[in-house]
Design a protein that fits this description.
6 helices, 5-stranded parallel β-sheet, 4-stranded antiparallel β-sheet, alpha/beta, Rossmann fold
C-alpha cells in the first residue's frame, strides 16, 4: 500500500520478516504477534501490530519495558508522543491505562493505523491528535500520569558517522521541559532510545535532561 499526503509518502509493507517489539524480555517464549510495517517517506519502518483477542488478554505487552511505568499506575491517563505504528498505545492500554492521547504529526499515518491496526484507534479510550508535540503541549493545560516519547527513530549506528548532524525538536531541552510541565506530581516520563556502542544516545539523553535549562528551572 502506498498513499501520499501534502507532506509525506506513507507505505504499508506486509512480510513475515517484520517483527519488532523493542526491549522484549528474554523470558517471553510465545510467538510474536503478526505485524505490518509502516514507513514514512521510505524511512523509520514502524510496526503495526495485529491482534484478534481483546487487548486485556494480550500477554506480550507485559514483557516490554514501557509496561513498568503503568504497573503502579493502573487507570493512568497517558500521553504517547509520535507512536509510529501504535505499539506504545497498545502497550499502554494492555497495561491498564484509562485513557491514551496519541500525538501524530502525520495524519495519514494515523489513518492507515486505523485501517490495519485491528481497531486500535477505534478504541474509546484512545484520542488521536493530528498535531506536533510541541504545538499540542503549548496550548494544552492537561497533565498526565505517564508521558511516553516513543522509540520510532530508525537505528543509526553511531560509528558510521551517518546522520550525526541530524536533528529532532522532540529531544531538545525546551521539549523536555514541556513534557515535564505536563506531568502530574507523581507522574513518570519515559524516553525510548537505541542502545549504541559506544553509548552515545544514553549520554546525549543524560546531558539533555541534566542541562542547566532543566536543572535550574525545574530542579531536575
Amino acid at each position: 500500500l502506498e498513499r501520499w499526503s501534502a507532506s509525506a509518502r506513507v507505505n504499508v509493507v506486509e512480510s513475515r520478516g517484520i517483527r519488532s517489539l523493542p526491549g522484549l524480555s528474554y523470558t517471553y517464549l510465545a510467538p510474536p504477534p503478526p505485524q505490518h510495517g509502516l514507513a514514512i517517506d521510505g524511512d523509520a519502518l514502524a510496526p503495526i501490530t495485529n491482534y484478534q483477542s481483546p487487548i486485556s488478554d494480550l500477554d506480550f505487552p507485559a514483557y516490554l519495558p514501557e509496561s513498568l511505568a503503568f504497573a503502579p499506575r493502573r487507570g493512568a491517563n497517558a500521553l504517547v508522543i509520535e507512536p509510529g505504528g501504535g505499539l506504545d498505545v497498545l502497550v499502554a492500554l494492555a497495561s491498564g491505562a484509562r485513557h491514551v492521547t496519541a500525538l501524530h504529526g502525520e495524519p495519514l499515518a494515523a489513518e492507515i493505523i486505523g485501517e490495519f491496526g485491528s481497531g486500535l484507534y477505534g478504541d474509546s479510550r484512545v484520542t488521536v491528535v493530528h498535531e506536533s508535540a510541541r504545538t499540542f503541549l503549548a496550548r494544552s493545560a492537561e497533565r498526565f500520569d505517564v508521558v511516553l516519547l516513543a522509540l520510532t527513530d530508525p537505528y543509526r549506528p553511531v560509528t558510521s558517522g551517518a546522520y550525526s548532524l541530524a536533528e529532532t525538536y522532540l529531544l531538545t531541552e525546551e521539549a523536555f521541559g514541556a513534557y515535564l510541565d505536563h506531568l502530574k506530581p507523581a507522574g513518570v516520563f519515559i524516553v525510548g532510545r537505541w542502545l549504541q556502542s559506544p553509548p552515545s544516545e544514553e549520554l546525549r539523553l543524560y546531558a539533555t535532561i541534566h542541562g542547566d535549562f532543566l536543572c535550574e528551572a525545574r530542579g531536575v
